[in-house]
Amino acid sequence: MTAQRACGVQDVAVSSAVKVELDGVAIAIVKDSAGDIHAIGDTCTHGEISLSEGFVEGDAIECWAHGSQFALRTGVPQNLPAYEPVPVFPVTIDGDDVLVDVKNPLTLS
Length: 109
Description:
Blueprint: E1 4-8, E2 16-22, E3 25-31, E4 37-41, E5 55-57, E6 60-62, E7 69-71, E8 88-89, E9 91-94, E10 97-100
Antiparallel strand pairs: 1-10, 2-3, 3-4, 4-8, 5-6, 6-7, 9-10
């Protein structure tokens, strides 16, 4: 695995997201309502909007501009207008660090 440090665990509050860039890829590091940390592509597939500026609800993040919600575990949109998924990346917690592997996005079906 080619994971690299994205941020600290404490840098992301519960039910919120932060934007990071790793190897030129914009990533939203999201802590869901259960406290689990996810890494997804930061750009909404509908309108080129930063998802890290959106709203975290349960285990999904909602684009603030048009309301599409994306499942944090799969990247699949839960409603229109988005219909294309965002990439999901493997996350490892190493002590206080959030490590993300942007070279090997997860393939979920």
